[in-house]
Inverse folding.
């Protein structure tokens, strides 16, 4: 591990309540970008790169080479900028190997027939490690929200994706295909078995009632003691609570646009002969 530990910069996208991170071994001059957002306005179909541009600018200002884009899962609430960052920097793109299950469900539903092996440079298994300068990134499989969910442990920091939210907001939904509340509970227990002072960096914040600011960093100790969905609950009680809560939740607004881009590793749909691109939305009902 680098003697100075990871340098971490966070980037909050209020439009999707998403947090992305630039994580670097500053001494060596290399960085990874975790869960980058591609700006997308559904009403107009407009794609923009402002969020990714800011992250790349932060790396460029410090002369850091971006070596990896790391996805914690196939996001259902924002489009990934992984493809854009790979094009600009040559970075490799990694995600949990459970992405295969997500693709098997959604590719036929959304008519995605152009999946490529190169969409992801590496599909991670539990316990895999990669080097970032003198830092070691450990992959921890944390399925339950989705089959592809992984967390990344770098020194005393863990990037947990949607597995956990701030203690006053709780935990991730588990009603997507392949989600499993019991599995999520067990994944969370793995994270909470880490040392108390371990820092946890989240992928989202929605400001729990009574809180006026967005926050996205907590600790293992705070989650153990104060998480409103976990404190004092058995797995059985958690599953009952989580399933009841999930039954009340709406479908994410960007579910279908996000999924069909993100199972391609952030690559946009192919162009039509006239140069246009289209996202597909399946219709239900009458």
């Amino acid at each position: 591990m680098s003697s100075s530990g990871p340098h971490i910069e966070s980037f909050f996208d209020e439009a999707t309540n998403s947090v992305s991170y630039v994580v670097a071994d500053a001494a060596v001059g290399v960085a990874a970008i975790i869960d980058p957002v591609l700006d997308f306005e559904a009403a107009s179909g407009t794609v923009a790169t402002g969020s990714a541009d800011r992250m790349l600018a932060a790396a460029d200002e410090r002369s850091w080479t971006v070596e990896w884009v790391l996805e914690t899962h196939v996001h259902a609430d924002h489009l990934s900028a992984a493809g854009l960052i790979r094009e600009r920097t040559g970075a490799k793109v990694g995600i949990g190997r459970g992405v295969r299950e997500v693709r098997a469900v959604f590719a036929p539903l959304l008519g995605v027939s152009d999946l490529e092996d190169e969409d992801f440079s590496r599909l991670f298994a539990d316990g895999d490690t990669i080097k970032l300068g003198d830092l070691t990134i450990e992959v921890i499989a944390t399925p339950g929200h989705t089959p592809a969910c992984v967390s990344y442990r770098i020194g005393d920091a863990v990037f947990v994706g949607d597995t956990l939210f701030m203690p006053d907001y709780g935990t991730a939904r588990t009603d997507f295909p392949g989600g499993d509340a019991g599995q999520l509970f067990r994944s969370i227990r793995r994270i909470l078995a880490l040392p108390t002072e371990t820092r946890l960096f989240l992928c989202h914040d929605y400001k729990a009632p009574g809180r006026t600011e967005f926050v996205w960093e907590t600790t293992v100790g705070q989650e153990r003691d104060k998480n409103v969905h976990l404190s004092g609950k058995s797995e059985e009680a958690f599953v009952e609570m989580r399933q009841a809560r999930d039954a009340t939740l709406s479908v994410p607004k960007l579910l279908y646009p996000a999924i069909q881009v993100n199972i391609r590793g952030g690559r946009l749909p192919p162009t039509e002969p006239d140069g246009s691109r289209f996202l597909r939305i399946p219709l239900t009902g009458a």
The first strand starts at residue 7 and ends at 13. The chain has seven helices and 15 strands.
